[in-house]
Amino acid sequence: MKPIRLLIIAGSERAGSYNRSLARVAAAAARRDGCEVTELDLRALALPIYDGDIEYGPGVPPAALQLRDALLAHDALLLVTPEYNAFPTPLVLNAFDWLSRISASAPGGGGKEATANKAAALLSASPGPLGGLRSMNLLRQYLGGAFQMIVVPQQFALGKAGEAFDEAGALKDAKAMHGVQGVLDAVGDLATALKPR
């Protein structure tokens, strides 16, 4: 992987989250490749459920601006998320809903300006055999359409995630690690190509 500034977000922050574990594996691999990595905890942002009355009353929560600023400060996003009922998690969708409501006229710029033409990549993990594949396919459309991100075609879904990690948190299967590394390599190459010269 070419060294870049990589923002990693897990779509689940529950105790024992397989996707949090997979995000840590990816973060460690990216750091070994010389990348500057930030792992952002969406749950710690404590964003309320999107509500127009909040937006037009108190305004967009400051935590949404933190997400925007984190995206602006990095070359690429790696989103590692499970699926809930074959759909991306509410934690991810709610955060990006708020991000989309930051106006382009806001100090620091708009939420969609922070995502437009930014490299992105997807990983997922699930106890089931598909590994969260359906969520990734929907996220690809969502990020590429609503947020104009450039999502690399390479992706990796870790099935049977409950059996995939050893006691140290590493992936047991070399093929699975190869899949993660392939996604990292692809997003690193794209982010490098997109950097201004």
Could you characterize what this model shows?
Helix 4 crosses helix 5. This protein is 43% helix and 18% strand. It is α/β, with parallel strands linked by helices and 197 residues long. The model has no long low-confidence stretch (mean pLDDT 94).
Order of helices and strands: EHEHHHEEEHHEHEH
Q: What multimeric state do the chains show?
A: single chain
**Radius of gyration over C-alpha positions, nearest whole angstrom:** 16 Å
Biggest sheet strand order reads 2-1-3-6-7
Protein name: NAD(P)H-dependent oxidoreductase
GO molecular function: FMN binding; oxidoreductase activity
InterPro entries: Flavoprotein-like_sf, FMN_Rdtase-like_dom, NAD(P)H-dep_reductase
Pfam families: FMN_red (PF03358)
Output the keywords.
single chain; 197 residues; alpha/beta; Rossmann fold; five-stranded parallel sheet; two-stranded antiparallel sheet; 8 helices; oxidoreductase activity; Flavoprotein-like_sf; NAD(P)H-dep_reductase; NAD(P)H-dependent oxidoreductase; FMN binding
